Amino acid sequence: MADSSERLFKIFSSPDFLALKGLANEVPLFIQTYQPREEDTTRRMAYALESRLKEQGIETVVVDLFTMFLAQLEEEGHLSRIIEREKSLTKVKLIDTLSNLSDPKTRFIPRLVKSIDTPDVKLALLIGVGRLFPFLRTHNILENLQPTMVGHPIVLFFPGEYTQEDGLGSQLRLFGTLTTPLLQRPYYRAFNLEHYRL
Predict the structure, then answer these.
(1) What is the pLDDT of residues 59-114, one digit of tens each?
(2) Residues with Cβ < 8 Å from 132, sequence gap 6 or more?
(3) For residue 123, what are the β-bridge partners?
(4) pLDDT tens digit string along 31-43?
(5) Is 151 helix (H, G, I), strand (E, B) or coil?
(6) Number of other residues whose CB lies within 10 A of the CB of residue 91
(7) Distance between CA 135 and CA 94 in Å, rounded?
(8) Which residue has the higher pLDDT, 103 or 149?
(9) Is the pLDDT at 181 greater than 70, yes or no?
(10) Cβ(25)–Cβ(69) under 8 Å?
(11) DSSP calls for 76-106
(12) Could you tell me which of 72, 17, 26, 35 has the C-alpha nearest to residue 190?
């Protein structure tokens, strides 16, 4: 992970990366994959990168998407009720409830954008996406982030694989095993940081 941290620090501190050079008006969304077993290490790395970048004068924000969602539930008074009712709810009903409360278009993404789209922020690092599964899926987050046109890079740390195949579109494989059915595979306008070159 030390190699990954250094590689990402070089990318994230690059003036060209921060200025969105070479994106040809594409949305500045990037995906950095990692092995699910490296969840804790990746989380620590994201916060360490935030500190290092801030020391370089690059205002960076790390957002734990799961923690953000829990804070939203708490503020709206839903969290304690869900915890109280959890044992009596079926799994399907619980997932439906959480899906409704995390609707990406009307609830989740507006809250996320508010936390990352400020004049000072030059880079946003998103973690915790795996803990939102199955009630909020990564492709819904990406699809709803695309039209927001945030003016700086957004990097989503993803526990799994991200592939792009000619004729088949993009595929996110959460935890390296869960695939999107062929007919439902959207084209993600997100760049794979594994392929990014300075």
Answers:
(1) 999 999 999 999 999 999 999 999 999 889 899 999 999 999 999 999 999 999 99
(2) 65, 66, 69, 102
(3) 60
(4) 999 999 999 999 9
(5) coil
(6) 8
(7) 9
(8) 103
(9) no
(10) no
(11) TT-HHHHHHHGGGS-HHHHHHHHHHHT-III
(12) 26
Burial class (CB in 10 A: 0-12, 13-18, 19+), 114: exposed
Averaged pLDDT for residues 177-186: 55
Average pLDDT of 135-153? Answer: 86
What pLDDT, on the 0 to 100 scale, is given for residue 183? 44
Exposed / middle / buried, residue 135 (Cβ in 10 Å: 0-12, 13-18, 19+): middle
Q: What are 29's strand-pairing partners?
A: 154, 190
User: pTM of the full predicted structure?
Assistant: 0.89
d(CA 7, CA 129): 22
Q: Tell me the C-alpha distance between 61 and 77, whole Å.
A: 26
Domain boundaries, the chain: 2-195
Residues 6+ apart with CB under 8 A from 133: 174, 178
State the chain's mean pLDDT as an integer: 87
